[in-house]
Amino acid sequence: MLEPTGAYHHCLERQLGQAGLPMVKVNPLQARRFAEAIGRRAKTDAVDAAMLARFGALDELQARPMLSQTLSDMKELLVARRGLVKDRVAATNRDHVHRAPLLKRLAAQRLRQVECQVVAIDAVLRALCWADPDLKARLDILISIPGIGEATALTMLVEMPELGTIDNKCVASLAGLAPIARDSGQRNGKRFIRGGRAHLRQALYMPALVAIRFNADMKTKYQALINAGNHPNSPSLPSCVSLPSSPTHCSAKQSAISGRNGRGAHRGGEGITTR
Predict the structure, then answer these.
(1) For the stretch 30-69, what's the b/e string if a residue is b when 16 or more beta carbons lie within 10 angstroms of its beta carbon?
(2) Is the pLDDT of residue 146 over 80?
(3) How distant, in Å, are the alpha carbons of 76, 133, 209, 231, 249 from that of 143?
(4) 231-274 pLDDT, tens per residue?
(5) pTM recorded for the entire structure
(6) Alpha-carbon distance 178 to 196, whole Å?
(7) All structural domains of the chain with their residue ranges
(8) Residue 93 CB neighbours (<10 A)
(9) What digits encode the pLDDT tens for the residues 25-39?
């Protein structure tokens, strides 16, 4: 068991995987809260090691398969792309307030540089995905869903490599779209989404907005969520975008999409709900 420490744990993770040794990565916040719950306030290497061992024994954590080298490389590129997108937004905002000609030229140069770097990263991401037959097949299924483009599909593959091997409830939970109960006694509290993989949820939000406007099935699904009590601008909106949950489900969905008179419509009833 280990706590992810930024970029420093990647080498150890890769070596353990190559040696065939099982490994479990623990959320540092959860590990710290467990230590506080058992009364361990001190924090040293020896205390942390004993605490992690005890945490793993009590919680019966299961080791997950290590990411392939391709997915690991794609994740690194995706993180870099995300940083470039933030730089582009910041440079655009600064460009609006610059008055000096020199600063305007520098901002324009930075924007062009960022655009070129984003294009270069997209090309490498696409090449890595296409070189892997399994990833390529899953990418084709995802981009066949109206509202999901290549950039979003690549993000989904990288941020949730389990996609296609787990059921829809697990997908909703990992994406942070599963409502968390807040009941006590006879009081039924309002459910809220919480936790999960924020970058995946953010990547799904804009495609969901497009889907509920131009895809009749998704629009019907979205309206059903609102009728069930969800706010129209709720962060749980991406739940109306249906995600394949198993290889068989993926194949059936692809056949249905390709055989529907060329419309490529996607059935919203097979999606993840938030109720």
Answers:
(1) ebbebbeeeeeeeeeeeebeebbeebbeeeeeeeeebbee
(2) no
(3) 22, 15, 16, 27, 15
(4) 776 666 655 554 544 443 444 344 433 333 333 333 333 333 33
(5) 0.73
(6) 9
(7) 10-59, 69-131, 153-270
(8) 10
(9) 888 888 888 888 888
